Fold ATP phosphoribosyltransferase.
Amino acid sequence: MSEPVDDPARQLQNRLDIALATNFDLALVFLPAADIALYVAEGRVDLGITGRDMVQESNVDVQELLQLGFGKCKLCVQAPIKSNIKNPKDLCGKRIVTSFPTLAAKYFKELDPTKTTSIHYVSGSVEAACALGLADGIVDLVETGDTMRAAGLEVVSEIMTTEALLVANPHTAHKELVDTFRKRIAGALTAERHVMIEYNVERARLAEAVKITPGKKSPTLSPLDDANWVAVKCLILLSESNTKMDQLEKIGARDILIYNIHNCRVSNE
Ligand SMILES: Nc1ncnc2c1ncn2[C@@H]1O[C@H](COP(=O)(O)OP(=O)(O)OP(=O)(O)O)[C@@H](O)[C@H]1O
Ligand SMILES: O=P(O)(O)OC[C@H]1O[C@H](OP(=O)(O)OP(=O)(O)O)[C@H](O)[C@@H]1O
């Protein structure tokens, strides 16, 4: 038998721009990154994931809950390498093209309140503006710098660093759900960035070992059959795991094991 076509729940499930969580009271709505902060600030959605640059450009009141660790780049003033512009003040009163008109206008106004800098908005490919004669300089994102260099531009100054954030409406009516969601994401991020290290060390060298692996609160110690030795277990950053193993081996630690963590809840998340 076919499903009734006018069933609203069924229609929502079939939409590509909305995803319904099946085991949590949450609907995900996919929106342009630049519009998300506004929807969150107006309380149309409770939570949003977008860049810090987008939040500040929107100039609205949202609460930053978590830094998500991706989408890292810098918003920079850029000018042609071959120009005489080496200081952002050289661009005050000149023509700027950008996808960030609010941040750019604020930056140049603060730099020199006596001059009116012309700020023009374009929606993408901002780096083309100088070569095409529309701008003396631009304000745009730089990650690797490849796009900037390919366009013959260089960084004149850095306005801000940005990355993806989880933001919330400060007056949400669903505080408990929001907090549970934040904790779930924070737990998954902590698990992704950490590993569990376990090793045996002589009691006489325990103080040195604890200095190398202090754990988030303190390491877990377990006695061994041999009273002169102790087993140590704690979380360390994945990025530091090889260095820590080298250091532990140097102070005589043995049987050093590293485990991946699937998920976790730890304090200070
Ligand atoms: N090269 C990059 N490296 C890291 N983060 C980036 C980069 N470009 C954009 N972002 C980040 O991604 C978010 C969305 O930016 P943007 O709207 O430009 O996305 P997009 O995917 O390039 O969209 P579109 O292609 O439609 O312009 C912003 O928060 C921005 O800081
Ligand atoms: O320093 P890079 O690693 O080269 O990255 C920077 C580029 O990435 C973004 O552009 P995107 O690809 O989103 O295209 P767009 O300019 O059309 O938004 C940004 O606007 C820069 O153009």
